[in-house]
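Working notes for the structural subgroup meeting. M.R. asked for a predicted model of this chain before we commit to crystallization trials. I am recording the input and output together here so anyone reviewing the notebook later can reproduce the run.

Input as submitted:
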Amino acid sequence: MAGRLDRKVAVITGATSGIGEATARRFAAEGASLVIAGRAVDKGTALAAELGSGVVFQQADVLREADIAALIDCAVARFGRLDCLFNNAGALDRSTLDNVTEEAFASTLRLLLGSVVFGIKHAARVMKPQKSGSIINNSSIAAHRSGQGGYLYSTAKAAVSHVTRLAGIELGPHGIRVNAISPGAIATPIFWGGSEKARTRSNDANQSTMAKLEASLARATPLPRSGFPDDIASAAVYLASDDASFVNCHDLVVDGGRISMFHERPNGSV
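Returned structure, recorded in token form:
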């Protein structure tokens, strides 16, 4: 039985952990050929080998446009086309209005917004001649309400959601759909420093921290459980597939209803 992404070619950034890794596994299981990207060579190489000959790993730093362009070129050279780009790479930001710096502004906006802008640019140059393609950008519910991320993180994610609409309008006439996913609180190591820090800790320590995190997130979501990377991977499979052929310029919120709960005022009151 053919998978939902059978014969499609995708590039996934930030694919060596968390949401990116879960999405790579789901895309491969659904029949896609993949270029998975990240900075962790050992993890990326092992994941590609595990997922099979239709998956290749390429080291990339999405802070550099040249690295992003090289990922797109790798997909075309290896598989002959590009059907989907998932701009997933990112990191949390703890900035506030009072402590924001020029350095933090430059680095956070370049990572969270710049990688999306340049990802769209280089995916579009391949997809336009094909007259087809799906670009998916990882946004956040922090784009839509306060209290869900740092000052710069929320700002950048709001821009990601809007750039999704702008690009979808421009690229739609070429048969290219551009959509976003806005996850809620998804249980990944990003909450305690990201995958790089998690690799410095023991498995027991990470599992203990994860269990506490999942319980905490479950209490803050109308559906009484934490969100998981596979929840976002399922949304990405849908948006990449032909089932979403008439979905464009959309920001799909996947958060168990968290976005509809109380609005937290700046001082923490309700």
